[in-house]
Amino acid sequence: MMRGLFAQFVVSVTLVGCSWRRVASVRVAVEDGDPDEASIWDVFGPHGPQYTDIRQGRLGDCWLLASLAAIAHRHPHIIERLFVKRSLWDQARPVYTMALFLNGERTEVAVDDLVPALSNEFAFSRVGDEGHIWPALVEKGLAKAYGSYHDLNEGYPYDAFKAITQAPVSVFDTSQGDIWDLLAEAERSRWPVAANSWPNNLGAVAHHSFVILRTDEGARGKVVQVYNPWSVNKYSGQLADDTDAMQGTYWLTFEEFQTVFHSVYVAFVQSHYQISSLSVESNRSVALGFTMTGNSPFALQVEWPETRFLPTHCSNKLILGVVVSKADNLQDVHLSAFQGSTLFSNDRVDLPGGAGEYVVYISSDILNAKWMERIVVNIYADEEVTISVLSREPRALAASMFGIPFACDVFYDKTDGDTFRMMPHTTNGFPSWEGSAFKHVLWRNSKMGWLLSPAANATDRYY
């Protein structure tokens, strides 16, 4: 579902006044010294990827670079593992192939060592004195996948975390009462964290993504250390005297943190977890099955194309219902439902784990893009899993999971004295039944359980 062709990608650079230059030639010009010494560079340094390798240039992709820095800080091996087919690095014209997760599927994207340059400077992601080029390569790979560098302007760390790790990601408001505990737990668990800022009087850049490096609680009280992908800062808060303005890394008090930042993005990365995926038809219901051999917690995720992969002015508005349970205990359900437009192209069900066979009901309806024929289901777990499509009728499976007496799509409810028939369409992603006498709809609400609503209102509800 990639929107851009490589020819369009090349044109997009020339249109902004840049030229393609080989990394080594740009470094020679920047160093302005001994060409042999200045041309020394590599994909990674001797200690692997570091968050300080990230230096944002003239492109508004802080959401991407902050996320890369956060991953490099806590899971550098994920950045290294991103690069495959390394034998191609040794060619006269090296090729760098990255295994990205685009719309939930592993996708290999290859680029060479040409980078956009303005005169003698890197135009976008800059390469520092150490000569580590992996940030520029990942930036170029995603620009190619999305269609152009322009398509990297503005975004959310959520999308970058998904593209690099495919781990579950959640967004938290910094004003919530347990945000300090969350940051501390993320540090202990080595979860990458990024945060978005808003206007403030502390000198921190507004409308910008930062990396959350660590927390501390001691003589200074509760403090949080952050990194600005610009690799510079103008922080003027309470701890400004402890800050090196040219490094981009600084501490601020927890109260200042809550003043500067409004949202925190956490990628729940587990270093030994794997991704198992299956592409299924959209705009219909499907019944799936898989088997877990271990007892560790895992997540079942549903992915659909993010807006960058859609034609201009197209929406990814959809209705989605997901129900998961063990095959030997169908009515112990874990479910999620979504209806409407979303900034993020992912929904998930977190499961506590347990060996055994699992069944899944998924209903999807992409309202404004019926041509979008597939969605991706993946499982993030500490073992590889085979997901298969079951022959069982999906709505019949959902009815059994919800405990509905199911016989020929019809059942009689003694309490209401009415006969209910299964409706041909879902209500908020789940099967529903319409009463023949009173024209009420019995439907499942993901938060409130079963509801009996007037037929005219039930399908208008957003849950």
Give a verbal description of the structure.
The protein is of the alpha+beta class. It has helices at residues 6-15, 23-31, 35-38, 62-74, 76-82, 134-146, 157-165, 179-189, 254-260, 394-401, 455-458; strands at residues 19-22, 83-84, 95-102, 105-112, 114-118, 121-122, 169-173, 193-197, 209-218, 221-227, 249-253, 261-267, 274-281, 284-292, 298-303, 318-326, 329-340, 346-351, 356-366, 374-381, 388-389, 410-413, 418-422, 432-435, 440-445, 449-454. The strands form six sheets. Strands 7-12-8-9-10-11 form a six-stranded antiparallel sheet, with helices on both faces. A five-stranded antiparallel sheet has the order 17-16-19-14-21, with helices on one face. Helix 4 (62-74) packs across helix 5 (76-82) and helix 4 crosses helix 7 (157-165). Residues 1-7 and 456-463 have low confidence and may be disordered. Residues 1-25 form the signal peptide. InterPro entries: Calpain_cysteine_protease, Papain-like_cys_pep_sf, Pept_cys_AS, Peptidase_C2_calpain_cat. Residues 19-270 form the Calpain catalytic domain.
Fill in the keyword field for this structure:
alpha+beta, 463 residues, globular, Jelly Rolls, 5-stranded antiparallel β-sheet, disordered C terminus, single chain, 26 strands, disordered N terminus, 3 domains, Cathepsin B, Chain A
